[in-house]
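Weekly sync notes, structure subgroup
Attendees: PM, AL, DS (notes)

Item 1: joint prediction request from the bench team. They want all two components modeled as one assembly rather than separately. Inputs as received:
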Amino acid sequence: MMALYEWLEATSLSTWVREGETIWAFPTVLTLHTFGLGLLVGASAVMDLRLLGIGRRMPIAPLRSLFSLMWGGFWLNLVTGTMLFAADATKRGTSGLFLAKLLFVALGVATMVLIKRSVFDAPADPETAAPNVKLQAFLSLIAWVAAIVAGRLLAYV
Amino acid sequence: MGLTIPHLHLLLNHVPTVGTVIGVGLLLLALVRRNDHLTRASLEVLFAVALLTLPVYLTGVAAEERIEGLAGVSAGAIETHETAALLAFIWMQITGLVAWLALWQGRRLARPTSASVGAVLLLSVVTLALMGRAATIGGEIRHPEIVVNPDLATAVGAPTGWLTPDAIGGFVTDFPWVWPAAESLHFLGLCLVFGVLLAVNLRILGAMKALSFASLHRLLPWGILGFSLNLITGMLFFIAAANQYTQNVAFFWKVLFLGLAGTHFLYLTVFDKMWSLNPGEEAGPLDKVVAASAIGAWIGVIYWGRMLPFIGNAF
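Output from the run, pasted for the record:
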């Protein structure tokens, strides 16, 4: 595995992201990663708050559009996150904190897919959706908070 | 004519005092006349003044760095002014926040409740007193002719207590967990405010048309929560490491975009036309322009914030 990380870190793209003396290298990749985070977690938070009962006068079905924001943020961050990882692969690959972050992101995405299925793709009216939907929304919030805290702490290890 | 940051502080520093006087005056007049429109106007003024107080505080710290070495300038007087200004700033922000909440509530209940208007009145009177005090001490830094007792003014030492810029800065830098914890909260706040405002503004732009504006309006306090969280954590960073920001061009742009984004919060709960946007209805072209520029303002805030260490000198 270490050999793979070392190879990854030595690729010209990784070297450019890490060492490129231009605003377009590390600074821009990191900024795009922040925008992806804002889209993915921001839209998820709005969805989760509504499912937890905030703003009951708001019908749930139209919120389906939020999934395009979430997926947009997700793909943006998959690409930029991979670049950031590759630039620092030997360090990140062996970091427990980084693995924890990946786990929380996976949990967040899993709850997102679960909510899409149980609330929006179910034959029943979204308003009378599955009783455990609040639990899913709650788990989603917890997962994203944990992912952000873990990701933010990566800057200090 | 070059406009320096200390110059900007001198230009802006009358806004919090004069603005609060106007806000409190309008509010009292509204109560006497029992006029709801005036009440709303006074709350709007207080919110706007709270927003403008942010650059006043920030430019003040930048001005301090420029003049603290000059002859005839007492470091003690500056510190006393800074501490008084921080206390006034905090009360001003709480006043602005409660004024916004009263406006938001007034939207849903036809008028702000007397409890919230009373709370704003109380807070704004305290703010006015504290702001007047900060302004008076500030004036004495460069105007020896107005000092009543010069011996007393030069005898002023560094302020003590926990609510001083020194004590807060010490708290942030002395404990290694404070800065990372505040950064984590700053990013959570970012998601909250960005997510809520994106949803509301995309609706105005034509997405999720089945939602009425009024139903989305319910989410706005969660956006304000994120905004407040980030104001608090952001001020911790600024107070602890001011020189990273006062000389930082990215920070200047971030605060400018923050002002636009903050004004937009007022717009979202004040204008009647937006409030009556029913399910399925299309917003007007001007409202769409405002919605698009609000999203643009938040993109600007995040961009310049993230670029603080790269374009500027923050870590």
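Discussion: The longest helix of chain A spans residues 26-51.
Action: AL to compare against the crosslinking data before next sync.
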